[in-house]
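Section 3.1: Structural characterization of target chains.
Under the original work plan, the team committed to producing a structural model for every single-chain target entering the pipeline before any wet-lab resources were allocated. The record below documents one such target. The sequence was received from the expression subgroup and is listed exactly as submitted; it comprises 159 residues.
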Amino acid sequence: MSFSPQSRIWIYQSNRKFSNVEETAILKKLEAFTNQWKAHGNELLAKAEIRYGFFIILTVDESQASVTGCSIDSSVRLIKEIEQEYNVDLFNRFNIAYKLQDEVIVNNKEDFETLVNIKQITPETIVFNNMVQTLAELETKWEVPFQNSWHSTVFAHLL
């Protein structure tokens, strides 16, 4: 399947890394969902993936059918089911993910702020911008240096 660069995406970041067993089971659940995902009876061209063991990414190419409020609600219900089944937090936007020596780490806002303050997080540290909205943005604006991210605005007083 080929997806347009303008395909819409939703990123759900876990507060902990999924185990290999969990990731396999979650991917099966996501695949079953995307294979039957519809908007007003129209099948959506959709896919789901997990990156780095932390990020569930849903992609919909709206050239075939547009996403609707109801179809988005159904995806949110699925993510909430995964959250409960695997005892993870996928909706806390105050958890911040970054890379340290190519390993992804997720911390709460307070711990992240401390790391910025003590210079463990530098302007060059790669952070994840989970607010990207298209496949093109995912490829170019998702993993960015701290200094080029919205994070640097929030924590500017520490830089």
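DSSP finds five helices and nine strands in the chain.
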